[in-house]
UniProtKB/TrEMBL annotation:
Lineage: Bacteria, Bacillati, Bacillota, Bacilli, Lactobacillales
GO CC aspect terms: cytoplasm
Name of the protein this chain belongs to: tRNA threonylcarbamoyladenosine biosynthesis protein TsaE
UniProt cross-references to InterPro entries, sorted A to Z: P-loop_NTPase (IPR027417), T6A_TsaE (IPR003442)
Family membership noted in the UniProt record: Belongs to the TsaE family.
GO molecular function: ATP binding; metal ion binding; transferase activity
UniProt gene name: tsaE
Pfam family, one: TsaE
Species: Paucilactobacillus nenjiangensis
């Protein structure tokens, strides 16, 4: 499924709808250049989960944990692990835990990812505020979520 968002509000609103469908242990992989909308999308997820906190990019901390919502949110930026080291962070404990994991730059920890996850790919267009976002489900659970969202459920 591919959607074109023309502003950050649309991006956040879709992420809020997606958050309603998420369960403990769900993993979302966000791909895209710097400034493509990954953190904006994560802010929408957090709002949809009922998390009332300032969501910031975890670039320098690698993992930010947010509590207080329907499910915890684990926001990860693993760019700095391009030379390895994901297994030392205990990522599997997050992926198998009670929250939702959002992983940016996941190609650097590909071996650590669970079998089932949702890949969310952001592309800029020629219009400054516009983003094309492609959702690629891995596993039945995420295929069902994308089908439901695509059908307006």
């Amino acid at each position: 499924m591919e959607i074109t968002f023309t502003n950050s509000t649309q991006t956040m609103n879709f992420a809020k709808k997606l958050a309603d469908c998420l369960e403990p242990g769900d993993v979302l992989v966000l791909n895209g250049d710097l400034g493509a909308g990954k953190t904006t999308f994560t802010k929408g997820l957090a709002e949809g989960l009922g998390i009332d906190a300032l969501i910031k990019s975890p670039t320098f901390t690698i993992i930010r944990e947010y509590q207080g919502g329907r499910l915890p949110l684990y926001h990860m930026d693993v760019y700095r692990l391009e030379n390895g080291g994901g297994e030392e962070l205990g990522l599997d404990e997050y992926f198998d835990g009670p929250g939702v994991s959002v992983v940016e730059w996941a190609q650097f920890v590909e071996d650590e990812l669970p079998h089932d996850y949702l890949s969310v790919n952001f592309r800029r267009t020629d219009i400054e505020t516009e983003r094309r976002v492609t959702f690629v489900p891995h596993g039945y659970h995420f295929k069902k979520i994308i089908e439901d969202l695509n059908n307006g459920n």
